[in-house]
Amino acid sequence: MTSVDLYRTVRLIRRFEERAIEFVRSGEIVGGIHPYIGEEAVAAGVCAALRPDDLITSTHRGHGHVLAKGVNPARMFAELMGRESGLNKGRGGSMHAADFGLGILGANAIVGAAGSIATGAAWAHRRRGRDVVAVSFFGDGAMNEGMLLEAFNLAALWRVPVLFVCENNGYATTMPVAGAVAGSITGRAKAFGIPAFTIDGQDPEKVLAATTAAAERARAGKGPTFLECLTHRLDAHHTFEHRARLSYRSAEELSAGWSRDPVEIQGARLAAADRAAVDAEVEALLDAAAGIALGSAHPDPAAALEYLYASPEVMR
Amino acid sequence: MPKLSYLKALNRALGDEMAADPDVFVLGEDIRVAASNLTAGLFDRFGADRVLDTPLSEQAFTNFATGAALAGLRPVIEFQIPSLLFLVFEQIANQAHKFSLMTGGQCKVPVTYVVPGSGSRTGWAGQHSDHPYSLFAHVGVKTVVPATPADAYGLLLSAIRDDDPVVVFAPSGALGVREDVDFSTLAPVPLGVGRIARSGSDVTVVALGHLIQDALAVADELAGEGVSVEVFDPRTVYPLDVEGLAASVARTRRLVVIDDSNRSSGFGAEVLAVAAERFDLAAPPRRVTRPDGAVLPFALALDRAVQPGRDQLLAAVRGVLTSGGDR
Fold first, then answer.
1. Would the CB atoms of B72 and A147 count as touching at under 8 Å?
2. Taking burial as the number of CB atoms within 10 A of a residue's CB, which of B25, B39, B52, B96 is the most buried?
3. Does the pLDDT of residue A1 top 90, yes or no?
4. ipTM surpassing 0.90, yes or no?
5. With contacts defined as CB-CB under 8 Å, which chain B residues touch A124?
6. Comparing C-alpha atoms, which of A270, A284, A285 is closest to residue A7?
7. In Å, how far is B311's CA from the nearest CA of chain A?
8. Domain hosting residue B255, numbered range
9. Domain co-membership, B41 together with B154
10. What's the average model confidence in pLDDT over B169-191?
11. Strand duo B24-28 + B74-78: pairing
């Protein structure tokens, strides 16, 4: 994975999200999104350390994770727009994007829920003799969900090849970490005997290095690792916040976050011409992707409950 | 013919399916020593990777099973206390159940949740005595309540082989039921297909699980009075075998349901709603249930007072036989 590749990923996520916000404004995306703007280096660095057959679980703020794991942006846009050609055939939307062919076991809208799902999936693969690693992304808010702490215990107890990646963006919606987390975030993982590290989540190369080491450790049978990635959510918790201005952080704080913009941090490592070439490549890719998504068919309301059961033959 | 108990039938089904399919494994609390006997002998046969003793972390291990299922395994979770299903309702109803639709059919979650000892366990009081099958039917999770040892065997096999989450409620009051069984005839029983537990012509009594015994006893008693009671066992709460029930009611035109749920929005309410929409009845149907919003009190007489029983069923059947008039 080269610096150019990492830059391409953070740039792709940024521009995808900026376009998605425009589609929310224009009404092409209903229900809004949780923008990943500012946190791109975490997804880019983590997924760059993974093999194609490795697994991830994602969150309500998950577009970056799935793009970094390799989903087709056209199918992702189409999913956000509720189209039949979407990743989930328009049945999942922003908070449930999944692509099992790419090891993406789905974004999960219940905070902290997917840690145990990733743990079970990684355990199952190991039992089948495969050296697959699973990554579970979650935010600082999830650190107060009991079922995630239970998952840490199971993963450590059974030495499951799973990586717990905490995107600490400072806020659970509007609740600051300091007001929500007693003790420390890494201290909770360490209490279960899980090695835990706090890393700079704005720099994709640092995230890549830490994840590579953690994945190697997991593949070697040494169990889970916990990575606290310090990051900044530079846009709204959810696009509803664009209309309902909520007062929970200062302009200075936001400005300090922008001074550590991952797109600029990684972009500065490229020659200007290379960076411009990647930017143009990303725009062309997203132009085409948006065009495909906008031209895709809407699902037939008569098929609203298609896929409800995997064994539908017993239903009447 | 050898006798087979209901609980032994569940144990046999689980062992047979684990032997037949290496992807099947069981997890839960105190299952290595088989505290409930559901997993008796299985740890020695299959080892720690397939009989996974868990810490008291129901929410995480329920999602863990979902993850293992997404990766291709067929987990069976034992919950020895029915109320634990309230604790993991999110993990079943909101996670396991929704993956298929939400992913546009990309995956399946073939997890089976088995509750050996659902309903009143005689003296276990408020928080260990629920029988929450109606809740799972309401959200659309496949839900099974076997009544006999052969059905317990066959329905558990079908539940494990089904590609969706299935909850199997084994009522406490049924675990000790024994019947003569030719083991060579034990076979899967399809989900969603009811059975006539006793044929009759005057009235259909719908009952599930341990209440089948009460329904049969009432049928015996009324037979002495010249009343012919048909007992219909849907076996599966969801999907309900509406066609099977319709065929029975078409013969009897009278209907009583006995249901170990709270009255409002319970399984009995659903059966009566189906009857109101679809059946041509000679008399208004009746239901015998736990009271609205019931919590089972501890003292035995109080516990029994809020459970549906034979006397209430008898009165309800007599009621539908005497009302309506055009019999």
1. no
2. B39
3. no
4. yes
5. 67-68, 71-73
6. A270
7. 34
8. 195-318
9. yes
10. 95
11. parallel
pLDDT exceeds cutoff 50 at B327: no
Tens digits of per-residue pLDDT, B81-126? 999 999 999 999 999 999 999 999 999 999 999 999 999 988 899 9
Please tell me whether residues B224 and B270 are part of one structural domain. yes
| Domain edge (last residue) among B122, B152, B185 | B185
Q: pLDDT tens digit string along A56-110?
A: 999 999 999 999 999 999 999 999 999 999 999 999 999 999 999 999 999 999 9
CB-based contact (8 Å) between A304 and chain B? no
State the alpha helices, DSSP H only, in chain A.
3-26, 40-48, 63-68, 73-80, 114-127, 146-157, 177-180, 185-190, 204-219, 251-258, 262-267, 272-294
Q: Average per-residue pLDDT in chain A?
A: 97
Reported as a single tens digit per residue, the pLDDT across B123-144 is 899 999 999 999 999 999 999 9
Residues B208 and B75 in one domain: no
Buried b (16+ CB within 10 A) or exposed e, A168-203: bbbbbeeeebeeebeeebbebbeebebbbebbbbbb
B217: in domain: yes
Q: What is the distance of C-alpha B44 from the center of its chain?
A: 29
Q: Which domains does chain A have, with CATH numbers?
A: 3-291 (3.40.50.970)
Q: Are residues B95 and B239 in the same domain?
A: no
| pLDDT exceeds 70 at position B326 | no
- What is the three-state SS of B71-108? CCCEEEEECCCCCHHHHCHHHHHHHHHHHHHHCCCCCC
d(CA A128, CA A88): 27
* Interface list for A 149-178 with B (CB within 8 A): 150-151, 153-154, 157
Contact status of A124 with chain B (Cβ, < 8 Å) = yes
